[in-house]
Design goal:
Blueprint (H helix, E strand, L loop, with lengths): L2 H30 L14 E7 L3 E8 L7 E4 L12 H7 L5 E5 L16 H16 L3 E6 L2 H11 L4 E7 L16 H7 L2 H11 L2 H9 L8 H10 L7 H7 L8 H4 L8 E5 L10 H7 L3 E5 L7 H4 L1 H15 L1
Parallel strand pairs: 3-4, 3-5, 5-6, 6-7, 7-8
Antiparallel strand pairs: 1-2, 2-4
């Protein structure tokens, strides 16, 4: 092929690339013009109460106070479509034994999803502190999933009087080398939040097949149908994209959480883990071996949500942990 032919071919590919880019931008723009909403039922058949936080706005939580004893606070994870559905098996089990609460974190579930505030670790930390101090009023045993483990650990470091113990299920923060990495954070958020991308990108991420694909990653078997259906519903609410965009931009992660928070905790803490599609635990053994208040149990086979597939084994570990610490 001669030089002129090469130039023409290169120019042709540029045109094709330009048309493909234009088509992609056009599609995202079209998607961004519509914010689809569907009815959102309760994820747990229990009382749903609310309170107002000066920092986090209107917050909702599920509660069952029929039993006596130390309260249990359950905290769902952070991703594109989380809610209290994620911890429902634990809520339904322990509501027979003790008071149980499940907070819908800011930007998710029934809680306020406004787009005029930054969804950062400080917001979630303060929401958890206010939940315990104003709505429960006494020290709790807390169970948190994945990234939310970082927020409840921050809360326990600031207010150890509010927490009898922490259980962190497949927590972030123990991956080797993460504190030395640099992450785009704010710049990435600025890109994701561009008007032409924001809603369109979120709609792509929360299509039912994609939700099911990512849900299946957290189950050894196939994800529960009600789990997928509720994730779809909660991700199709007004303002649903605002908090997940901060998550996708990595701004919700504290990359030095291990030395900055975990190692400084005095509250008894249990880690439940095995394999997880999103996180690893290389630094966990060192912490467990060096600090008496930290404990860990590997629950195999599990992939981030062991309480959905091996509830009996999970509750046996939890009951023994709580019995040992008193």
């Amino acid at each position: 092929m001669n030089t002129d032919s090469n130039k023409r071919a290169g120019f042709g590919w540029k045109i094709i690339g330009g048309l493909a880019l234009a088509a992609g931008v056009g599609y995202l723009y079209k998607q961004s013009q519509e914010e689809e909403t569907v009815p959102l039922p309760k994820s747990i058949e229990s009382d749903l109460e609310q309170f107002y936080s000066d920092v986090a706005g209107e917050l909702f939580y599920y509660v069952d106070r029929r039993q006596s004893g130390r309260p249990l606070l359950l905290l769902h994870s952070i991703n594109a479509a989380p809610s209290s559905m994620e911890i429902r098996p634990l809520f339904d089990h322990y509501r027979q034994e003790r008071p149980v609460y499940s907070l819908e974190l800011p930007g998710f579930g029934f809680s306020e999803r406004s787009g005029n505030r930054p969804y950062l670790p400080e917001l979630y930390t303060q929401a958890i502190i206010e939940m315990v101090s104003t709505q429960i009023g006494t020290a709790v045993d807390a169970i948190a999933l994945s990234l939310t483990s970082e927020f409840v650990a921050r809360a326990a470091l600031l207010r150890p009087d509010l927490f009898n113990s922490l259980t962190l299920v497949s927590p972030t923060g123990f991956q080797a080398g993460q504190s030395e990495k640099e992450y785009p954070g704010e710049k990435l958020y600025q890109f994701f939040s561009l008007p032409i991308l924001s809603q369109g990108l979120y709609k792509l991420l929360t299509k039912r097949p994609i939700i099911k694909y990512y849900s299946d990653q957290s189950f050894v078997g196939e994800s529960a149908p009600q789990f997928v259906s509720y994730a779809y519903a909660t991700s199709h609410q007004k303002g649903a994209r605002f908090a997940p965009l901060y998550f996708l931009s990595t701004q919700l992660f504290t990359f030095d959480i291990l030395p900055a928070v975990y190692e400084k905790l005095t509250v008894p803490a249990m880690v439940l883990y095995d394999e997880d599609p999103n996180v690893t635990f290389e630094n966990l053994p060192t912490l467990i071996n060096s600090q008496d208040n930290w404990h860990a149990t590997q629950l195999s086979p599990s992939r981030g949500l062991p309480h959905w597939e091996m509830l009996g084994q999970v509750t046996a570990v939890l009951d023994q942990f709580w019995e040992n610490i008193g």
